[in-house]
Amino acid sequence: MQFYQKKEAVLVVNYEILLRDLPQVLNFAADAVILDEAQRIKNYATKTSQNVKKLNSKFRLILTGTPMENRLQEIASLVDWVNIRAMPPLWSLDAKMSIRS
User: Fold this and answer.
1) pTM of the model
2) H or E stretch including 16?
3) Max Cα-Cα span within the chain
4) In which element (H, E) is residue 76 found?
5) Which residues contact 43 (CB under 8 A, 6 or more apart)?
6) What CA–CA distance (Å, rounded) separates 68 from 56?
7) What is the pLDDT of residues 15-57, one digit of tens each?
8) For 64, left (φ over 0), alpha (ψ -120 to 50), or beta?
9) 51, 72, 89, 91: which sits with the fewest CB atoms below 10 Å from its CB?
10) Nearest partner of 70 among 34, 98, 37, 36, judged by Cα
11) Calpha distance 54→26 (Å, rounded)
């Protein structure tokens, strides 16, 4: 996979290619990762979410046009990847931290 060895390039991959080529993408060592359709990582348990969260970059940005369902765990999954210190760990989020209408 010679393509992933270009250090100055911009790498654009979709989630399926990321799953297929994860070891090579991890070696790419991007300074910034921008996730479009970031709702794809709202569930911690999915393989997509787990693999995206293996990406290590200095700058991270998430984009989504899909309205969130306002489930604390889903928002926490997104925020956790952008800034792991922004929210408490998922295991500590409980019912008293969320409001149901």
Assistant:
1) 0.75
2) helix 15-20
3) 53
4) helix 72-82
5) 49, 74, 77
6) 25
7) 999 999 999 888 887 888 889 999 999 888 999 999 999 998 8
8) beta
9) 91
10) 98
11) 8
